[in-house]
Amino acid sequence: MPYRSTQQLPDGVKHVLPAHAQEIYKEAFNSAWEEYKDKSARRDDASREETAHRVAWGAVKQVYEKGDDGKWHSR
Question: Any idea what the CATH number is for the domain that residue 41 is in?
């Protein structure tokens, strides 16, 4: 289920990430959704959706980090 806009992202993403990080998440999720549609392309028994969410968080963490204040900040 690719996301058309950041408004469709899960609450756990929308309510914690800054706008730019949400865009990164959405784009990475959508890309991974296509890339890992075949089960054979995934490393473990994770679902297509679980895999796409992992990839999306990984993409966010390349640009942002969670600070001591609990908020996400650009690296």
Answer: 1.10.1740.70
